[in-house]
Amino acid sequence: MTPTTPDAVAPPAVCQAPVHSPPAPKPPLPLLGRMAATAGLLIAYHWQRHAIESQLGHLFTSLTGETAKPTTFAIGVVAVLIVVLVLIWRKVLAKDKSFHAPLLITCILIMGDAAFGILEDQPSQWLRQVTNQRISTYSPTFIAMLTTVLTELILGRFYYGKWPHLASAYVSGISAGILIKSPELWPFILCGMISITSKYVLRIGDRHLWNPTNFGMTAMLFLAPQHVASLSVQAGNELAAPVVIWIMGALILWKLNRLHIPVAFFVAFIPLSFLRSGIHGNSWLTELTPISSPMFQLYIFFMITDPKTTTKSKRSQTIVAVLVAIMETVYRLVFRDIHSLYHALFTVGPITNLIEMGYNSRCRRQNPAKANRPPEKTM
């Protein structure tokens, strides 16, 4: 009888808890869907606002027997539109601060149009034929927005292999659409393309040397002055719209920890207006009037506060804002420059950025331990 060998003892089974994958979160309304809804609301408002304002005016007159200013109802309709936009973007705004700037610039767009009529339609024979005479005009501002978004998508995918965040492109598109004034369409498209392309080409590391819209506007005013003008001090005696924008802009910049930049610019701009008044012979209020214009609001809330094109520390940001205000006065007084705001930031911004980057690089070479510290957060 052949002895049998005992079977090999099997290793004890390891008790493993079943792996449960977390439930997939319900997908929120996609970003492109929100942007499409926003664009649809803006287009509908742009095409129907006169009819709505007229009906509200007739209703007000029939109820009270008085006639109110047209801008009163225009601003009221815009206020309702802003509330709707906030409801559409409320979850995104709560989670991602990068969408605060698009909300603010949308408010500037529709408030500026309601109070000052900054959006201008252009006739199109092609639209007449395609829509059977139903639509005969278009807004080049929306074409500029579409241009910047598409350019951002293409370049972001090409450079980094992924789809980029579109908040910056949306801001640049509206800025270019508001600031460019031309009877032709191609300047709006070209300005949008130049603005976005400058973000990918004119940069050092993760820093842009110029604010995209500032660079695009300056380039267009230099390359095609016979075809392009800029929205300058288009303003009026309607204070409700600027006050709403200032309050909203101040709250957003305060939450983003960048309110000190426009405050520093204001602190320097106001006394400099006295200097310009004494030299030009204009009244002080005349020199100060541009602060109520949509162009000035875009400048202080977006161009000089752009996180990618400003210096890193609060102290240096404050100094740069004051230097930009001083340079703006120099351009205006010495060169009689009507585009002094653009040229002041175009000059001071990249120079101060390069000085800071050179200084930081020298400090890292002298003290390598600082190079391992986490970078300072600006937003």
Report what the structure shows.
The protein is mainly alpha-helical and 379 residues long. Among the domains are: 30-95, no CATH class; 122-230, no CATH class. The protein has 14 helices and six strands. It has helices at residues 31-64, 70-95, 100-116, 125-130, 140-160, 167-179, 186-201, 212-223, 240-255, 260-280, 284-288, 294-303, 314-335, 340-366; strands at residues 122-123, 137-138, 180-181, 203-204, 207-208, 229-230. The strands form three sheets. The protein has a two-stranded antiparallel ribbon with strand order 1-2. Strands 3-6 form a two-stranded antiparallel ribbon. Helix 5 (140-160) runs parallel beside helix 7 (186-201), helix 6 runs parallel beside helix 8 (212-223) and helix 7 crosses helix 8. It is globular.
Summarize the structure.
The protein has helices at residues 31-64, 70-95, 100-116, 125-130, 140-160, 167-179, 186-201, 212-223, 240-255, 260-280, 284-288, 294-303, 314-335, 340-366, and strands spanning 122-123, 137-138, 180-181, 203-204, 207-208, 229-230.
